[in-house]
């Protein structure tokens, strides 16, 4: 019965009445310590503020830049593909995930030209490096952009 529901014992507690005399245990400064910035109402200190001292983020030298258009790719080398797959097989994202070479995460798949390839493969990926395309076609395979 909904009208007979009661909160379990100890669930409802009386709110702490701060600043109501020394006998309460939270009188005078109301648990805020002494005076100063943190004792004031709305006296929160901003992150990185060091009391007027030059903050760390301004003391350290700034170098380089962040490219906000950078696209993180999942990278696979031609050599690692050649170790796992046999001649004439089709290599795509699903096959690479199945063999455990890459993990299924967000981002395009890029094939790089590190390693050797001696047999023909049909490789399907979002991007290829120039050296990867050269090695795949030189071995008699096909590099297909998906």
Question: What would your notes on this structure say?
Answer:
- The chain has helices spanning 56-59, 78-84, 93-99, 130-138; strands at residues 74-77, 90-91, 109-112, 122-125, 127-128, 142-145.
- The longest helix is centred in the last third of the chain and has 9 residues, at 130-138.
- The two termini are 62 Å apart.
- Strands 1-3-5 form a 3-stranded parallel β-sheet. A 3-stranded parallel β-sheet has the order 2-4-6.
- It has a domain at 74-145: Ribosomal Protein L15, Chain: K, domain 2, CATH 3.100.10.10.
- It has 146 residues and is of the alpha/beta class.
Mean pLDDT: 91
Q: What's the assembly state of these chains?
A: single chain
Share of helix among residues? 10-25%
Q: What CATH architecture of the domain at 74-145 would you give?
A: Ribosomal Protein L15, Chain: K, domain 2
Spell out the blueprint of helices and strands.
Elements: H1 56-59, E1 74-77, H2 78-84, E2 90-91, H3 93-99, E3 109-112, E4 122-125, E5 127-128, H4 130-138, E6 142-145
Parallel strand pairs: 1-3, 2-4, 3-5, 4-6
């Amino acid at each position: 019965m909904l009208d007979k529901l009661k909160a379990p014992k100890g669930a409802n507690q009386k709110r702490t009445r701060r600043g109501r005399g020394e006998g309460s245990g939270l009188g005078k400064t109301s648990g805020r310590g002494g005076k100063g910035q943190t004792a004031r109402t709305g006296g929160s200190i901003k992150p990185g503020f060091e009391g007027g001292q030059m903050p760390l983020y301004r003391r350290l030298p700034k170098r380089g830049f962040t490219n906000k258009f950078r696209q993180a790719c999942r990278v696979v080398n031609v050599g690692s593909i050649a170790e796992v797959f046999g001649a004439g097989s089709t290599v795509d994202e699903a096959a690479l995930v199945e063999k455990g070479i890459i993990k299924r995460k967000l981002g395009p798949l890029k094939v790089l030209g590190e390693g050797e390839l001696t047999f023909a493969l049909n490789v399907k990926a979002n991007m290829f490096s120039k050296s990867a395309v050269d090695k795949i076609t030189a071995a008699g395979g096909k590099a297909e952009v998906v």
